[in-house]
């Protein structure tokens, strides 16, 4: 059974995702689609709009065959670590191909860029370091590094979010010589950062979809997602009573920052020296997450980077913990969140050949759980803690779709 | 101007407090009443039902002339440290007399007990240590220590809460040879732990008053407190929207326990070895504070002791921080929360002779604030954090009553 992997967040699942899923299967001529999906906290450092079990439902109903959780330690990371973790998981499951959406849409431009970057690696690193030390943001520093080099024709300018991610997928696969076919498809229409729903199209960005839902217009987004996803969102709102944004967690985050010493804040993963004082100052005056992050923002730190740091503060993830988690060269386990019947057959075939344990049960806080799993369970507990009747993670069962 | 000190919590102020206040003034023949009052967290390890500013209002309107905050480091402590801190504050202000309520009502029985205890100190300590190591609670161990000694006639059995506190006030004053007159008055009628409002009397316990208010019967308690206190409570509910019990803080406490490592919990003041695992277990399953503390309770640890530990967890007060705070032999400052015109004249007289700084402004989170003051400000911030529009502590001004 030929399989294709997709790396996703589905926050929430929409028509753009459906297009990507179908095209990936077609282009890779695959029978099985394996989705590696972020758990309850996402790459941009945000709590997932609906929890991972709900998003697994959406994925399965829309055609994914296997949903694997991208652990927090890889999910809430800059593109480089996010991509490496996800590609390593697909490789651990011996998935045959990877297909990602990109602004470029041309896989050769990615492999060419990879080779070119490898050739000029030292110079680029040097320029990057210099520019960043001058206070230039990462994307801007990258652009400057490019301009200083020869043969930049046909090299992808890594200034668009999905080209950046795509580049890192390709790099992750080629660096480790993973035997995985690489494909990309051009993302259609919606721009990742669009905040408005488009009037004429059936594809909108997840950002604009979340924004519309939060302003109380759940019905207005029906047009932009499969009916099954829409029903899942309706069901979520009815049963859980709320969707999840940073505002829901601000009282906890604020409390944590105000009751932590500056030394404790400094110990948190990605908390850069000096930021601990800004954090305390902003938390004492800001009463909403939006005003808090507005006070925190500087030219130097992007909102995304700050949000990732805030996720780590919320979950008390320390530098030394994360360093230990990321030290091994391969993922500690493959955690299945859900599968179709096709997915089940596929996993049954793969099972015998795996070198990484396949987890099909939710965790239960047992002391012998892998620390990465303990962190995922904690992320779920905190994510759920804003609901009036949360379901403990250990009571969750893998979702099987008939 | 002769002054008398009272050591209080006023949670909330009621007729029993009014009686104590008036009698103290009469018995000590004082013109000025100085109330040393716990801040936003109390000796039994509970958040104050209304914040300290509201309770200062009640105290001043009922006849107190000066209200001084008993800092968190002394307030949320077993009787011994609570009493020492409060008596040291009164002595630092050179208050002439102290009058406390007790079940006994006879000051000579307290001084006699103090002398007797001093004589038998080593034997008592030895028995106490032995019994406690066998898992016996502190009051029970104390009772056993008594029985093993001669001449126990006229010695107060320290098994009633206000006799225990009273004994420690007397001990605190005599141990340090503070030149302060000691008086006690018999507490009338209401038992400290009564949960029901009495039908025939106008004095009820603060516990029963809080209980009635929480069950939505604010009007039912009007009979048991001065009109001014009742109006203050009405105003609090209107302006702040809620009173404060542990349930209001359980989401923060639970979050803190679940996201702390066992090592971090072990570092907290009064967290006894082994309890960190019980804390994590109870927090993962309990969704209310009541069910949480029910799961936590053992024969060995009283609810009060556990609640004090939980306050320290909520505010992240570490063993080493508290040890440093308690190391000096005298209080670091006298913080005035409010005063009457008489109180103002009194403070003006005392001012010149003080060896301890008199703080008349609220703190502002300045980095040179005394750590004890920083802790009080944090206690206020966390206490207020459950309100929709909290007033930051640094905006508070000392209350002056005309």
UniProtKB/TrEMBL annotation, chains A, B:
Source taxon at top rank: Bacteria
Chief place where the protein resides: cytoplasm
This protein's UniProt keywords: ATP-binding, Cytoplasm, Ligase, Nucleotide-binding, RNA-binding, Transferase, tRNA processing, tRNA-binding
Record-listed E.C. numbers: 6.3.4.-
A Gene Ontology biological process term: tRNA modification
Catalytic reactions of this protein: cytidine(34) in elongator tRNA(Met) + acetate + ATP = N(4)-acetylcytidine(34) in elongator tRNA(Met) + AMP + diphosphate
Pfam families named among the record's database cross-references: HIGH_NTase1
Transmembrane segments: none
Binding annotation for ATP: 7-20, 101, 162, 187
CC terms in the record's Gene Ontology section: cytoplasm
Keyword Cytoplasm: yes
GO molecular function: ATP binding; ligase activity, forming carbon-nitrogen bonds; transferase activity; tRNA binding
Family matches, as Gene3D superfamilies: HUPs
Compartments reported by the entry: Cytoplasm
Function: Catalyzes the formation of N(4)-acetylcytidine (ac(4)C) at the wobble position of elongator tRNA(Met), using acetate and ATP as substrates. First activates an acetate ion to form acetyladenylate (Ac-AMP) and then transfers the acetyl group to tRNA to form ac(4)C34.
UniProt family annotation: Belongs to the TmcAL family.
Descriptive protein name: tRNA(Met) cytidine acetate ligase
């Amino acid at each position: 059974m030929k399989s294709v992997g997709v790396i996703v967040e589905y926050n929430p699942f929409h028509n753009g995702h459906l297009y990507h899923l179908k095209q990936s299967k077609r282009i890779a001529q695959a029978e099985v689609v394996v989705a590696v999906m972020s758990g309850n906290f996402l790459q941009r450092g945000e709590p997932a709009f609906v929890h991972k079990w709900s998003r697994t439902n959406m994925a399965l109903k829309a055609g994914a065959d296997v949903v694997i959780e991208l652990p927090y330690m890889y999910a809430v990371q800059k593109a480089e670590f996010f991509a490496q973790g996800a590609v390593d998981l697909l490789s651990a499951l011996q998935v045959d191909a990877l297909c990602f959406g990109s602004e470029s849409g041309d896989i050769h431009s990615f492999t060419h860029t990879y080779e070119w970057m490898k050739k000029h690696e030292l110079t680029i690193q040097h320029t990057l370091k210099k520019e960043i030390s001058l206070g230039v943001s990462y994307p801007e520093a990258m652009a400057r590094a490019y301009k200083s080099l020869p043969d930049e024709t046909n090299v992808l300018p890594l200034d668009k979010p999905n080209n950046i991610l795509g580049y890192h997928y390709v790099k992750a696969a080629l660096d480790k010589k993973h035997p995985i076919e690489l494909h990309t498809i051009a993302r259609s229409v919606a721009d990742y950062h669009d905040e408005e729903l488009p009037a004429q199209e059936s594809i909108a960005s997840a950002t604009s979809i979340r924004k519309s839902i939060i302003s109380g217009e759940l019905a207005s987004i029906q047009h932009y997602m499969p009916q099954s996803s829409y029903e899942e969102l309706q069901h979520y709102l009815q049963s859980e009573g709320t969707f999840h944004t940073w505002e829901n967690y601000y009282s906890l985050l604020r409390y944590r920052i105000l009751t932590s010493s500056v030394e404790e804040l400094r110990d948190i993963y990605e908390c850069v020296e000096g930021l601990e004082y800004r954090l305390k100052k902003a938390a004492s005056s800001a009463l909403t997450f939006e005003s808090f992050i507005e006070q925190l923002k500087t030219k130097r730190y992007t909102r995304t980077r700050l949000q990732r740091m805030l996720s780590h503060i919320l979950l008390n993830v320390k530098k030394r913990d994360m360093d230990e988690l990321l030290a091994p060269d391969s993922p500690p386990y493959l955690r299945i969140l859900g599968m179709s019947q096709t997915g089940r057959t596929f996993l049954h075939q793969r099972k015998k050949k795996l070198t990484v344990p396949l987890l099909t049960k939710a965790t239960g806080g047992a002391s012998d759980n892998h620390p990465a799993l303990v962190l995922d369970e904690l992320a779920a507990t905190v994510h759920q803690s804003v609901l009036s009747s949360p379901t403990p993670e250990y009571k969750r069962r893998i979702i099987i779709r008939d």
